[in-house]
Amino acid sequence: MNRGLGTPETPRGQTGPLGLVLVFALVIASTTALVAFGATAITDTQDRLDSERTEKTMTQLDSQAALVALGDSAVQQVDISAPGRQGYLVDGNAGQLTLSYENTTTGAQRTVFSTEMGAVVYELSDGSTVAYQGGGVWRSDDGRNSVMVSPPEFHYREATLTLPLVTVDGDERVDGRAVITHNNSMRYFPNKRIDSEFTNPMENGKVQVTVTSTYYRAWGQYFETRTDGMVQYDHPNDRVTLTLVTPLQNTRITSATASLAASGSFTINGGTNTRCSPSVYTNSYNSSGTTNDYCAQTPGHAGDIVYGGDVDISNGAGGDDIRGDVVSGGTVYVGNGGGKPYVYGNISYTDNCERSLAHCRDRITYGGGSLKQISGVEEAPAVNGVIRTRVEEAAAAADNDNGTTGNVSAGTLDFGNAGAADTAELAAGVYYLDDLTVPSDNEVVLNTTDGDVVLVVEENVYLHDQAEITVVGDGKASVYVGGTGTDGSGRHFYMGSNSAITNAGDDAPQFRMYGKDNFTAQLGSGSGGNLAKYVGVIYAPPGNAGTGSVTLDGGEVFGGILTGTTTIDGGNGGSIHYDEALRTERVLERSDSVVKVTYIHASVNEVNVTSA
Predict the structure, then answer these.
(1) Angle at Cα 519 formed by Cα 250 and Cα 332, nearest 5°?
(2) What is the DSSP string of 415-473?
(3) How far apart are CA 2 and CA 8, in angstroms?
(4) DSSP label of 378
(5) DSSP character for 300?
(6) Are 96 and 193 in contact (CB under 8 A)?
(7) DSSP readout, 96-144?
(8) How far is CA 203 from each of CA 212, 438, 599, rounded to the nearest angstrom?
(9) Helical (H) or strand (E) element with 351
(10) Could you give phi then psi for residue 15, rounded to 5 degrees?
(11) 267 pairs with which residues across the strands?
(12) Helix, coil or strand: residue 589
């Protein structure tokens, strides 16, 4: 056999060495990949640990600095040894906070203070930073995205802004043991020595807090979650602005009568008084989509009574019922035994229901409602600033329509012949009056055919017996009562016997009267005679410190009331019929706003951070 004719044996002999080479190559590649992956994992872990350690260190620095800044300690020390080589940098010029104040009546703007916050900054190996600034701790990943690690010295609760800003300066670089010392503190608000308007409580101001910082996004997110204000970002300038103002276009009248204030209460003394059956203290109707007035409709059970304080129906008369819910942020008093009004709805209370829960359940036996405890009633802010602005603008001749009619002269309505029954008519426009007084048997016609009619009254509104204000047309009529003067009995609004503010179909959304937090009104003369009739809204929320009140003593309301304290009083009594058409109506214009900050406590507290 010729072996030379077969397959060569040399390649078969090389298979072993080549396989071994391939094995070694795979081992080396795998080891290299494993080492590289492990190195990356170790680096990532190290970066994460460094970030967590730095955040904890900064949080500790935050806590110690607050003790010094706010006067609880003269000096504090904290270990801020850097995990890397670069150490902690102190930049006294990093970031700026400005607190400003605007008088919404005059439009005057003032800066309460504007100061550089400074910062203690540590830069991690991945380029992200952790910083102590403004009394808080922040982290920025790439100079654009930032998050809060620990909140700043900024607190907003129940219309009170507390801003004890902490600013920082010191050694350019600090490592190891840091010493925190107090430099200076200055209270800016309240402080009459700086400005006579820097006082609490605020009634007509708008407040803005503006932060310019690498961490402005995180500041803004904090403002959004901790306040109900408006937050606006200026990204090109690394700036965010918080405005403590809430638009009023969402405000509604959703109950027959309400205070929405802790001090506001509702009381019934005696029986009711109505023009047509049924005999009730509150109930409802709906003027929307019909020309029928209240007496031509079948009344509903949406006549709710909602008060932040106590609701006392214990002195009411049996058979004169409440057709709606009773809601109290305090205690509901229903009385004992028979001869008391029933509640055709629910009774909700915060503190208690007296004389006992059993008596309260008895009061709702015929209403099919329930008895329950609630956490409280939401507060409605006062509209003092809105009214002041309206009065200020309308008082200027260029901003009113007084000169377009012969019925207004020198801020007074002209009814023609003195002592005679006469009519003064006002067409669409804005009119400024020192006071609005309608003599007996005289009438004011507010003609909204060509647009809305707005009356801005500096002092008070007084309708004598048999006096009337009638709204005609399809527009709306509004009366803003400045309340700088009263009728001599301390009232900003009074309606005598058989007087009326009315329109066709008892259309409550067509007429609105606005008052400040001390707005005081009486509907009915209190001395017999026919009922005074009011068709529309009385909107005078008391805020958190108002003393306003509405008394029905021979008066009947078709619409809704929002005020401080309401009383249905005396032998003449009265009733309130809620117009359900108000549920979909804005109470104020979209441009009107209400300030949601009443108290400010603002200071700047400077600390130094230096190496031990």
Answers:
(1) 75
(2) -SSTTS--EEEE-SEEEEES-EEE-TT-EEEEE-TTS-EEEEESS-EEE-TT-EEEEES
(3) 13
(4) P
(5) B
(6) no
(7) EEEEEEEETTT--EEEEEEEE--EEEEE-TTS-EEEEETTEEEEESSSS
(8) 28, 31, 9
(9) none
(10) -60, -40
(11) 312, 567
(12) coil
> Any idea of the CA torsion for 503, 505, 507, 512, to the nearest 10 degrees?
20
The stretches in the chain having pLDDT less than 70 are 1-25, 27, 29-49, 82-86, 104-107, 142-143, 203-204, 245-251, 337-338, 417-420, 544, 589-595
Tell me the longest C-alpha to C-alpha distance in the chain.
152
Exposure b/e, 274-307, CB count within 10 A at least 16 = b: beeeeebbbbbbbbbeeeebbeebebebbbbbbb
No. of H helices and E strands in the chain?
4, 48
Do 261 and 541 contact (CB within 8 A), yes or no? Answer: yes
Give the three-class secondary structure for 590.
coil
Interatomic CA distance for residues 513 and 254, integer angstroms: 16
In 3D, which of 177, 166, 182 has the Cα closest to residue 131? 166
- Residues forming a β-bridge with 423: 443
Rg (C-alpha) for the chain, rounded Å, is 35
Place of tokens 């935050």: 62
Distance CA 159, CA 165 (A): 18
Decide: 316 and 337 in contact? Cβ < 8 Å: no
Using an 8 Å Cβ cutoff, are 597 and 223 in contact? no
What is the rounded distance in angstroms from the CA atom of residue 394 to the CA atom of residue 430? 7
Reduced to 3 DSSP states, what percent helix, strand and coil does the chain have, rounded to the nearest 5?
A: 20, 40, 40
Residue ranges per domain, the chain?
A: 46-244+597-611, 257-309+377-595, 318-376
- Calculated CA dihedral for residues 458, 461, 467, 471, nearest 10 degrees: 70
Task: Kindly report the pTM of this predicted structure.
Answer: 0.65
State which H helix or E strand residue 21 sits in. Answer: helix 10-69
Three-state secondary-structure class, residue 55: helix
Q: How far is CA 358 from the centre of its chain?
A: 37
Amino acid at 89: L
Tens digit of pLDDT for each residue in 465-496?
A: 999 999 999 999 999 999 999 998 999 999 99
Task: Please say whether the beta carbons of 595 and 244 come within 8 A.
Answer: yes
At residue 25, the 3 state secondary structure works out as helix
Burial of 158 (C-beta count, 10 Å sphere; 0-12/13-18/19+):
exposed
Contact 433, 409 (CB under 8 A): no
The Cα-based distances of 514 to 212, 219, 331, 562 in angstroms read 39, 37, 28, 10
Three-state SS annotation for 465-494: CCCEEEEECCCCEEEEECCCCCCCCCCCEE
Residue 244's contacts (CB-CB under 8 Å, 6 or more residues apart) are 156, 161, 206, 207, 208, 209, 227, 229, 595, 596, 597
Give the pLDDT confidence of 371-426 residue by residue, as tens digits: 999 998 887 778 887 888 789 889 988 889 998 998 998 889 988 765 567 899 99
Distance CA 496, CA 255 (A): 25
As given in the structure block, the two tokens for residue 110 are: 């003032």
Q: Which long-range contacts (CB under 8 A, 24 or more apart) does 197-200 make?
A: 197/101, 197/103, 197/110, 198/101, 198/112, 200/598, 200/599, 200/600, 200/601
